[in-house]
Amino acid sequence: MRNLILLAVQGAGKGTLAKALSEKFGYVHISTGDILRERASVGDELGKKIKDLIDNGIFVPNDIIYEAMEYKITRPECKNGYILDGFPRNLEQAQGYEEMAKRLGIDRGIVINMTLKDELLKQRIIGRRVCKDCGSIYNIYSDNEQFKPKHEGVCNKCGGPLYQRDDDNEEAMKKRINTYFEVTTPIIDYYKEKGILYEVDSTDSDKTFDAVVKILKTLGDKVD
Ligand code: AMP
Predict the structure, then answer these.
(1) Does residue 132 form part of some domain?
(2) Total domains present in the chain
(3) Is the pLDDT of residue 69 over 80?
């Protein structure tokens, strides 16, 4: 399977789509946000610095990101295909990743750009809940039973406790959305020029998943 890069403003459902694709087809899901939160939880000096940046919706420096990415994408399990969720996040990172992939002899993959109407974004971010035990993602405002917790604060799948990310608040959200449109949008043009950008509407997560599968099939990938 070819590697995938997911592009979307935070809250558009990148994590949900990546999780669904990896569960169904065996991609390795590489989320920079998850990697950074895990590193932050160590609680040492670097961990505290990372936590502070994340909580304020500020980018973590590139050297930290590149080191983590190179370590991840060269793991043997990534040979069968991986999904990048949260990286590259600006043009500089897109160019950095391009060079990294070339140097390592890894196919950079194709880019899925997930689009979502502004008014849905706020609900997606403020309503997001994540299971502490299995990582399943829910939304308390969701119309879809699968994504709405049946019991408040409890994971439908494993019964684990649900939590709200520290950066899922309105102020951090505004910062993240502004940052996204300022610095991430140029990546779209960069990949468009390379002819590897595919767009999917992410209003409905089931339909988004089907749209991605359709794209992959068109390209000849075995995703049944
Ligand atoms: P996410 O889980 O993708 O929403 O990421 C949460 C936070 O982690 C972001 O708001 C940034 O502070 C940081 N982060 C994640 N990915 C990157 C990246 N590629 N470059 C810089 N910072 C990142």
Answers:
(1) no
(2) 1
(3) yes
